Amino acid sequence: MPEAETKGTTTVPAPQPAGPAAGNAPGPVPAGTSVAGPAGANTVTSAGDETSTSATGSATAPGPEGGGEAASARTGYGPVFAVPEFRAVLVAHAFSLLGLVVSEIALSVLVYGLTGSPLLSALTFALGFLPYLIGGTLLAGVADRFPARRVLVVCDLVCAGCVAVMALPGTPVAVLLAMRAALALVAPVFQGTRTATLAEVLGDGELFVLGRSLLRILSQSALLAGFGAGGLLLTVVSPRHALLVTVCTFLLSAALLRFGTRRRPARADRGQALVRDSLRGARRVLADRRTLVLLLLFWVPPMFTVAPEALAAPYAEGLGAGTAGLGLLMCALPVGTIAGELFAGSRLRPATRNRLTLPLVCVTLLPYAAYALRPGLGWSLVLLVLAGAGSAYTLGLDQWFVRAVPDELLGRAMTLNAAGLMTVQGVGMALSGAVAEFAGVRATIVGAGVVGTAACVTLATAARRAERGPTRAGAADRGDGNE
To answer: Residue 203 CA to chain centroid, in angstroms?
Structure first.
């Protein structure tokens, strides 16, 4: 049943998005309602059409202190699917994910077959983490300096080209690894640009939150189904032929983005060299205390969340669960994440989600502390599902973050966020393995729960105290940018 909405002034305050006072901010608009924004009717159209009448959701949902009737309206995911451009972005995302997952499996098998080295085979996965930080800092300016559609299409074409090189017969192992690193270098730019584009397609209100949620749900679903599908594909075709399938998926994604979304102008000029501009933008983003706290809220919980996944193999062995138990342990966290996002996005009102954001941050890692009770396989799965469901706090963070960042820095901020998120997960996995060498697997997971919860509570307290920033420029105009 939908959760009841508490009215009045008894709610717990959370960090408010930059913008009008909560009492004056318009709430999310139910599907079918005509919306006129500050710059006129904010509409979303299919490619090339500038006069369509789809609602964008650019009317903003206030924070938890804003309890107006419009703010508490429940929309669910239906209105998001009604936006043609978002449908194109979502399907393109599915093709990109499919290509990435298949390429990771195929490349790992190919490198192992060529070298017989487990180290080099594992390195193909590690190279998916390491270049993120470089691309997310040195190339972040690309997301704002060029039209978003062009950036997205070029990134997909670059990825298709890199995988095509991998698929060539006789490609040396060093080149294979270099192409894998290039894919990871481009990925944060693509992800940051896509997220910033979502804010233009859907507005920075309720539809943006639900659109981001759907992309994350799709990503988690790809983790569950993609590796199995990739493994099945490799029983039918060779690794190099599987890589050719990946080339096709990237090309399909590029075509969908090119012909399914509108061309919008760049958010910033190109006055400086790219690297200098990217670093300057990163400094500006990190210099704002409120934005920095929000970034840390995105980054810190996942750094601890990955501990059970990183240690799933030795933990399953300790339980005597075998490979079947290992597979269940690897699936439990994504299942919880999907369930939590779906429930929060479809059953909770925007104001309720806002109020629950910081409490969920504070408790999402607590289930790991229960590993001290030495649960069996069944209870371990329950704890992982609960921890995954707690990640629904990201729906509230998404809206606070997109409203806190100045418009001309939005693409760079989203790129930096994507790069940081992937980097801290890699660091978290490495730290979990290192600590488990000395403290043991179970103690490491318990420590991740206790230390992670303490860090999350500290950040949540800092977020509540963060001073509300000024309204970022261009927020009112998002959703109707034509070029």
So the answer is: 17
Class of the CATH domain delimited by 78-271: mainly alpha
Contact 432, 444 (CB under 8 A): yes
CA distance 18 to 303: 27
Instruction: Assign 467 a pLDDT band (cuts: 50, 70, 90).
Output: low
The answer to whether the predicted template modeling score (pTM) of the entire model surpasses 0.85 is no
The domain 288-469 is placed in CATH, from the list 1.10.287.370, 3.40.50.720, 1.20.1250.20, 3.30.420.10, at 1.20.1250.20
The span from the CA of 319 to the CA of 306, in Å, is 19
203: region left, alpha or beta (phi > 0 left; psi from -120 to 50 alpha): left
Whether 358 has a pLDDT exceeding 70, the answer reads yes
- Tell me the CB-side half-sphere exposure of residue 383, using CA atoms within 13 A: 23
Closest by Cα among 146, 86, 41 to 476: 41
Q: Based on C-alpha coordinates, what's the Rg of the chain? A: 22
Q: What is the DSSP letter of 348?
A: S
CA angle (46 as vertex; 44, 47 as ends), nearest 5:
120
CA distance 339 to 389: 6
Q: Kindly indicate the confidence band of residue 282, based on its pLDDT and cuts at 50, 70 and 90.
A: confident
Q: Are 279 and 415 in contact (CB under 8 A)?
A: no
281 contacts: CB under 8 Å, gap ≥ 6: 140, 141, 144, 409, 412, 413
CATH code 1.20.1250.20 region(s) in the chain: 78-271, 288-469
